[in-house]
Amino acid sequence: MNRWLQPRQIWALATKEFRDRLRNRWVLAVALVFTVFSLLITYFGSAAQGQIGPRSIELTIASLVSLVIYLIPMIALLLGFDAVVGERERGSLDLLLSLPITRLELLLGKYAGLAAALTLSTVAGFAIVAVLLYQRFSTAGLFHYLGFVLSSVLLGLAFLSLAMLLSVLAKDRARASGLAIGLWFLLVLVFDLALLGVLVASGGAFGGEGFAYLLLLNPADIFRVLNVFSLDDVRRLYGLASIVPPSLGNPWLMGAAMAGWIVAPLALASWRFRP
């Protein structure tokens, strides 16, 4: 079916996906998880130094970065891994495609609905911490915290795009779930260790600015660099910052790289999903 994209069709599918997540309380559950963990980290992150409560915007963001790196990619992958392959297994994919809707509209509609659910749950989960920081520090560093929340949303959207790609490529839900878990391990746990291992094993021979640009191959590292370079105190807390050149501290460059991780997997999924 060759025709222009119909926004009404995409909107209808996105609304259905979003309402399904609200109906099964997925959004509420994820928002509660983010709220509980972010509050615990904000209040007790400085307990080792004998202080309860947020000491500074910088240290709060530094603590929350670790939470986001591990939690949001996993939630996004689990949210989207069966978006297409699940419909195929249930036998409802052929029914959807028999309607006056293109495959691209189906893919974009599902992604938009899931992205809205993920964004709402993420923002809601960090909202209470924003209120607490505002009460403690007024507006003096809240700008950086809002930037952190925005980058967290973008990280989730990037991994959701990867999940949609896996859902298109996988032949069944079991394989899709396995690929999602494997991708999480690769990008969140293995990638940085491999880079640092090569750097140490080579005695720094493969270091330098060119080596650091390999971080752009991982959306989790792009998120980390965005937040590491936004504040001086946070930058000093991460050993990874010692090998990252100042040129990677450009937020526009890193934002464009993150946007690429959102668009490219979706484009590849659309190409692979063609009849």
TrEMBL record:
Family annotation (Pfam families): ABC2_membrane_2
Keywords: Membrane, Transmembrane, Transmembrane helix
Keyword Cytoplasm: no
Keyword Secreted in annotation: no
Transmembrane segments: 26-44, 64-85, 106-133, 145-169, 181-206, 252-271
Protein name (record): ABC transporter permease
Phylogenetic placement of the source organism: Bacteria, Pseudomonadati, Pseudomonadota, Betaproteobacteria, Burkholderiales
